[in-house]
Amino acid sequence: MRVFIKKIFVFLIPVLIIWGGLEYFYKTTESNYSYKHKMVTQNYEDIETLILGDSHAFFGINPIYLDGKAFNISNISQSLYFDQLLFEKHRDSLPNIQNVIITIGYYSLSQLKNTKEDLWRKYFYRSQMKLDVPIISLFDLKKYSLSMTRRFDKSVFLIQEYLEKGTIIGCDANGWGSFYENTSGVLLDTESKATAERHEDFLFNFKENITRLQSIIAYCKKVNCNVYLVDMPVYNGYLELLDSNKLDKITKSCNDLATNNRNVFYINLRKDSKLEESDLYDPDHLNHKGAKKYTKIINAIISDPKNDD
Amino acid sequence: MQFNTIDFALFFPIVFVLYWFVFNRSVRIQNVFLLIVSYLFYSFWDWRFLSLIFLSSLIDFLVARQLKSSLGNQRKVLFGISLFFNLGALFIFKYFNFFIETFTETFLLFGKPISYSSMQFILPVGISFYTFQTLSYTIDVYRRRIHNTDDVVSFFTYVSFFPQLVAGPIERASNLLPQFQKTRIFNYHKSIDGLRLILGGLFKKMVIADNCALIVNNLFENYTEYSGSTLFCGAIFFGFQIYGDFSGYSDIAIGSARLLGFDLMKNFNFPYLSKNLIEFWRRWHISLSTWFRDYIYIPLGGNRVSNSRLIFNILIVFLLSGLWHGANLTFLFWGLIHGGALICTVFVGKYSKLNVFVDDQKSVVIDFFRIGVTFFIVTVAWVFFRAETITEAFGYINRIFSVSFFSIPQGNKLFLVLLMGYLLIEWFQKRREHLLDIQHISLKSVRYLIYYTTVFLVFYYAGDLQTFIYFQF
User: Fold this and answer.
1) DSSP class of residue A143?
2) Which residues of B touch A141 (CB under 8 A)?
3) Which of the residues A165, B48, B114, B366 could staple to B361 if both were Cys, CB 3.0 to 4.6 A apart?
4) Separation of alpha carbons B89 and B82, rounded Å
5) Angle formed by the axes of helices B364-386 and B390-400, to 10°?
6) Chain A residue closest to B187 (CA)?
7) Contacts of B187 in chain A (CB under 8 A)
8) More confident position, B471 or B61
9) Interface membership of B7 toward A (CB under 8 Å)
10) β-strand A49-52 against A70-72: which pairing, if any?
11) pTM over the 0.90 mark
12) Contact assignment for B186 to A1 by CB distance below 8 Å
């Protein structure tokens, strides 16, 4: 038995070394999550506009084109569940908050918590954004090791990226996702179908996510802060492949929130006629040019004095 | 808790250490410990269904005990009680809605709609496996093939033994139960081999099955948009998915049991190298096919019967085998295809002089041809196994056998070539016990290179975590 255990241990030494190395990498290398956490904390006093949402906000709303200090705390595949957790964590530390922008996409309101998208991300929110994440069980071993949360090939890819660029951070100091420079290179029509299929969850129950939005809205109302629900512009070919009934329901739900709360405004840019193909990285994400254009449009709406009581 | 998770990677070493170092004073203490951890293991899925395993174990334990001192009709009644409970539970949880729906649809065909309300039952994980395992015990005691046991802990542990509880191998009491009753001594070589089995199983599951799953899910969900050749490749991918998934699970189960000093029966023996369907069923899910052979086929008369009765016997076994897999017409069709093809194989072997499919030939070329034909039949049948509905299955098959069957398949060709390469490795290993049975390689460095390469492949090329397919059965 002793020989057996000794042999297993010796055999596992290289595996343990690699695991330890990866763990060290994740613990010491700044990622979007840790960087955003650091930057938002540093700018607590100055932030007037906080941007929440998923990749549509991450790539599509560039804070430098908004009046006043803004910070984009959105992340790729960030659900309203995490939007709420992040907002609740930071809200009391933001004395000058005036606007909260939340992007609402096709699946935002129907998205369940703890989906496939959160499979590894939830541990990064917990570990690198210092969130208390209730969907992580007490007995979940992965919360103690970030390297266990990601597939080995993804970790290797990140290390390669780090070695090439010296960083794995994909956003600027304001939290804006800066690596969708031009286009993805794939034809928009071809990509639209796959994207629409990926986004179709066949869910129509918005109740939980509406409750999350209402919670954010209620706090904002208390501190005289406006909430802007923004449906970002997307490629028409993609839009046509989505369920029109669900889109109508999204519009209605957002309109209802805006009607019932004087501090809520719904900016529906989904079918905006000013969108050009050159604004898009792919069917549902803006590139640098598009982000600049539409952040300015959003800014113009936010700055409209009609929105101030 | 799945075998391919961090949770199990921590759970098992703890069990291993406690089992050999803390609870090693007597077999009984070890068995009690195994019973507790087995129930704990199962409770990670759904603790409520522990009561079902407990009841199933209790009834069969008591029935078998009573059978010992019973005679005549009393034996039949006792046996009936066991059958009623075990098959009843299986029927309620697995088949109730299927039969009700089929019944209603049949009435509808004759223009007589009847109303019904289906009940939503959650399928307890592994119910088909442990039910068949306990049933085999009662049947063997009833037939006086084995003696019943009076050791309640051993029996309960035999039913719920965690390595094979949720997806087999479906063990026989004659093989496994005595192992719970004798002192288990740690065996170094067996344990090392257990680790090899676990590593090979993880490779099959995480690298082969989980990567195939991504391709298969897409092709089956959107089959109307792909060419016949692509869909045929999709069926091949599914063949590898289910093989990697299930045989991978079995290897890990057998390996884990071996580390605890138990020998479980072999469940797969390189099935895709089978030269005909008879051989395929001797190599695929061996524990289930031998179960059906021993408890259904042979009691029906086996092959020592008239031709018409032989056809009936084979068909009944394969229809039941299909039904065992799930309450869906797709599984029945899958069983029917295998049954029909097997009948053809049997009769070709019996009467035809062109019995190239069943005779042992010495030519590798002929061997490859026979393997190819068998693989083709099995692959086509897998379409029914994978499809959600019978309409989808026929739709998929129709598209396969259209003109586009002769076009160049879209995407994933390299992966297909790699899978064929994997089959070649199996070909070289076919006389060995399992994939990583490489003790015959004298150079230690080469052996370790193979082990580390496998570990690397498991970590680097693992697909997204998928639930083991056979858990649903």
Assistant:
1) G
2) 6-7, 10
3) B366
4) 11
5) 140
6) A1
7) none
8) B61
9) yes
10) parallel
11) no
12) yes
- Can you give the length of chain B in residues? 473
Q: What's the one-letter identity of residue B312?
A: F
Give per-residue pLDDT as tens, B173-190.
999 999 999 999 999 999
Q: Cβ–Cβ of A3/B188 closer than 8 Å?
A: yes
For chain A, domains (ranges, CATH) are: 30-132+171-307 (3.40.50.1110)
pLDDT score recorded for residue B24: 87
**pLDDT tens readout for residues A264-308:** 999 999 999 999 999 999 999 999 999 999 999 999 999 876 655
What are the C-alpha distances in Å from B88 to residues A46, A182, B92, B158, B317? 68, 63, 6, 21, 20
Name the pLDDT band for B49 (thresholds 50, 70, 90).
confident
B459 near A CB under 8 A: yes
Q: Are B422 and B436 in contact (CB under 8 A)?
A: no
Residue A1 forms contact with B (CB below 8 Å): yes
Pairing of strands A226-231, A264-268: parallel
Backbone angles phi, psi at B376, to 5 degrees: -65, -45
User: Which of B92-104 are b and which e, b meaning 16 or more Cβ less than 10 Å from the residue's Cβ?
Assistant: ebbbebbeeeeeb
Are the Cβ atoms of A11 and B451 closer than 8 angstroms?
yes
Task: Record the tokens describing residue A58, joined without a space.
Answer: 């991450």
Among residues B339, B243, B325, the alpha carbon closest in space to that of B284 is found at B243
- For this structure, is B440 an active site residue? no
The answer to whether residue B47 neighbours chain A at the CB level (below 8 Å) is no
Q: Highest mean pLDDT: which of A77-86, B63-72, B360-369?
A: A77-86
Q: Taking the CB of residue A89, how many other CB atoms lie within 10 A of it?
A: 17
Q: What is the mean pLDDT of residues B432-443?
A: 92
Q: Catalytic one among B147, B189, B285, B325?
A: B325
* ipTM computed for the complex: 0.71
B2 touches chain A (CB under 8 A): no
The Cα-based distances of B444 to A156, B438, B439 in angstroms read 29, 10, 9
Q: pLDDT at position B112, please? A: 64
Nearest to A141 among B6, B188, B192 (CB): B6
